[in-house]
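Form 7-S
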Amino acid sequence: MNKRFHWLEAKQLDRVTNFSTEIEPIKFALSHNIEAFYYCTFAKNKKYYGLKHNIKYLGILKNKYLKHVEFQILVVIKAISIVLTESESVLMVNQGLIRHMLPALTLNNLLKRKNKFVSDIRTTPTSPKTFDQKMKTFHKQFQYAIKYFDGFSFITPFMEQYVMSRYENKDYKIVNWSSGVDLDLFNPYNYLSR
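Output:
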C-alpha cells in the first residue's frame, strides 16, 4: 500500500483569503509522488483550486451551527477510517483538531500501525484583548500533540521557536512551510536593534 498524506483542517476553504497556504503542502506532496488529500468544510461553495481529486469536503449540512458539529464528528470518523485502512500514512491537523485525533491515535497504537500524526501550526491567537486567555487554551490543546504526536509543522521558524519554547524536549521532528513568505522580512529578530 502506498503512503498517503492526509491534512485535516478546521477551515471553510471558500472563506479563506490565503488558500495557497492551505494547498501548498498538498502540492509539495504531489510533486514528490505522494498521494495527498486535504479535508475541510465550506461556508457556501466548494472550491478546488485545480485539485478536485485532492480536496475533500466533509459534511453536507447548510446550517452553520450543525455544520460545525457535523464537521467535528466527521473528522474523528475520517481519521479512524484512515487508521483502519492504511498503515504508513501521515495525518496532519491544525491545533483545533488535535484532540479529535486521540481515538485514531489510540487505535493506531492498538493495531500496531505506523501511521504518523503531525500538528500543523499556521497561526496562534492574535487579538490583544483575549491573547493571554486564548494562548492558555492553545497550549492546553497543543500539549496533547506534544505528548502523543510524531511531529510538528510550523509556518515559519519564528513560529516554531515561539510555540516550542515552552516545552523541554527538543527532539521533536519539525518542518517549516513558509508558504512563500519572505522569512527575513517577517522575522521580528531582524528589527530588535532598530
